[in-house]
Specification:
By secondary structure, the protein is of the alpha+beta class. 56% of the residues lie in helices and 13% in strands. It has 2 domains: 2-55, Arc Repressor Mutant, subunit A; 59-108. Strand 2 (41-47) and strand 3 (50-55) form a beta hairpin.
């Protein structure tokens, strides 16, 4: 999906060319067919013998949907559990800069108290 978002549209061969260690061409075609069945990509058209695919939704909407699924599948739909897992020192070491950026984002998105 990242490749399709970046390119806007692509054939199976173009997707394959963008992958660092691609599977077979048949595997790419099968994956695109599966993504089409799940309404993640749409068949945009045909260029000679090549099928051209494009994302079925905007990247921002796809990210929100994926994050929502992640939250509900692994974190009981609770964002604080997701953030807590990211901050768990036994799982991942965050740099002081990364922690500062997270704090700024929280501060910027927190309404003033009493509102």
């Amino acid at each position: 999906m990242d490749i399709l978002f970046r390119l806007g549209q692509a054939s199976a061969q173009e997707v394959m060319d963008e992958l660092p260690d691609p599977p077979s061409y048949s595997a790419i075609r099968a994956l695109l067919a599966t993504l089409e069945q799940k309404n993640h990509v749409v068949l945009h058209g045909k260029d000679s013998r090549r099928y051209i695919y494009r994302p079925a939704m905007a990247e921002t909407k796809a990210k929100r949907s994926a994050l929502s699924n992640l939250l509900h599948t692994f974190f009981e739909g609770r964002p604080e559990k997701l953030v807590a897992s990211l901050l768990d020192p036994s799982d991942q070491k965050l740099s002081n800069d990364e922690i500062a950026r997270i704090r700024r984002l929280i501060d910027e998105n927190t309404p003033p108290s009493g509102v």
